[in-house]
Amino acid sequence: MKTYFIGIDISKDTLDVCILNDSDEKELAFKVSNTVEGIEEMIALACCSGNDSSHRYCFENTGNYGLLLASLLEERQLLYYQVPALEIKLSQGIQRGKNDKVDAWRIARYAKMHEQELIPSALSEEVLFTIKNFLTYRNFLIKVRTQFKNEKKA
Fold it and tell me: Transposase IS110-like N-terminal domain: which residues (predicted)?
């Protein structure tokens, strides 16, 4: 079975994704929004490359920007690695050029090269519970905001 390494460069609003196969060939590269819908779209696109058990998601530990991604991967019991950005940078040596697309490729390549040393990440139950509560509250606030906007128009 082929293994797929999915490198994700996280920013506040978007996720740049690069999927490499175990032969180091780029299967797919794309960008999605850093929202529940965007992450679900990313998982669906990654599933086209093989079954979920053959996927290795890897992304830099960016604090709050990566929490949603980590919680959704955790919820679906998908294997992922959160790696310090400095560790990835030091492993690459001196590099020229930098953009999000290239960073996603470098992260995927890092995951492939260091698969044996990487330890799968996991959120604690308490953190996961807190994130779910915040997401529920966020959705509630979005609905309330929409109601206020609609009342203002009327």
Answer: 6-151
